[in-house]
Design brief:
Layout lengths: L11 E6 L3 H12 L5 E5 L3 E2 L9 E4 L14 E4 L3 E2 L2 E2 L4 H7 L5 E5 L8 E2 L14 E7 L12 E2 L1 H7 L9 H9 L10 E7 L4 H11 L7 E6 L4 E4 L3 E6 L22 H9 L8 E4 L2 H9 L3 E4 L7 H11 L4 E6 L7 H14 L2 E6 L2 E2 L3 E4 L3 H5 L8 H6 L2 E6 L13 H10 L2
Parallel strand pairs: 1-8, 1-10, 2-5, 2-8, 4-5, 9-11, 10-12, 12-13, 15-16, 15-18, 16-17, 19-22
Antiparallel strand pairs: 3-7, 6-7, 13-14, 18-21, 19-20
Length: about 425
Amino acid sequence: MPELFNLIKGDIISITGAGGKTSLMFYLANKLKKRGTVLIVTTTKIFKPENTENNSFIFIYPEEIDSISPQDNFIHIFCSKIQNNKIASISFEDLDKLKKYFDFILIEADGSANKALKGWKNNEPVIYPNSSKTIAIVDITSLGKEKNEDTIHRFDLFQRQYFNSNKIIEKNDYIDYISSNHLFKGFSNEKILFFNKIESITLFEEFFNIVNSINITSKIYFGSIFKNEFFIFKNITPIVLAAGFSKRFLGDKLTFKLSNGKTILEQTLSNISQIKFKEKIVIGKNSFHDKLSYKYGYSYINNPKPEFGQSYSVVLGTLNASLSGYLFIPGDMPFLTKNTLLRLIYEFQKYNQIIVPFINGSKKAPVLFPKRYRNELINLKGDSGGREILKKENFIRYDFRNSKEFFDIDTQNDLKKLKILEEDT
């Protein structure tokens, strides 16, 4: 089994939130039963599952607590009481008795009436105090839907707790919801946020923007239970390289104005800023770079030795970045789109390898490096940047079709091509 959520023998896992609690619980149970004995319980209510060819359950009842003999390769489910085919909540006292028999215990500890958001009662969620981990599920597929009782459990209570006058569910509703910490209320051990149903680049963008708008210390996963995809979220820092001398251009190409009135560097920074990043950096060498960085919310790092070549800018960017990956972007890429950046970032989430875009068989920028290459990056010299690392390290190739996005300006003659590309925009 992959080390999903880093589960180990002895773990007691409470699951809260909405958008796949029961599915995740049974998914984990089927994986974990190959590693030890597994028990499922609820501190709220769950439907009693049926035995099928693919799933074999052993039901345990209160009178059997003192005579349990768990079996390998089975999922055990404790039924304190059954009403309307629903298993009622277990008491903490009974859980205390049961935990010594099982290697893994999975607890459904929250209810949301199959809706992505809810108003919270004072006693919710019901997290077992001896849980070693709590996994909170977030389902953002309700973005853009109308706010009402059909989309939000206990809508009136939700409105009082997270008042926002907008009529539809927006990103800020999820930011407030997650930041309130109700999903982990009263819990102090390991906290895990899992964003489920992230099954498209559009939803990945929404997820990425939400995660980078909240300040939480919990580990973050995303993916899709349905697609059997689970990824640890690895945040990245875009580092814009703007300290070059543009020797072949015979002037500072980054100050050249496009037909929309923006300079090449400003358009590049503006495009990147369409995505919400926790941190973003510009490596430059003058006040023009500094002012543009401030305008678009970048941290500006002055390169005091631009004559040392691009590698020194890479070194400075790496030294000042604090996240799990470094996305190096030349400052002269005004046609680079957020969709392309998101695809590179998404590939990085899946593989945690160097990600390199290709056009017609040729390597292009920007290139994304995992943090584990930090030492190699800060020891670079000359004008080759990270290309030296690519010569000796494995990387993930991602092929793109739109060569326009990867057009960069090296000479005055490239300005003619630039004008043609602008006309085609």
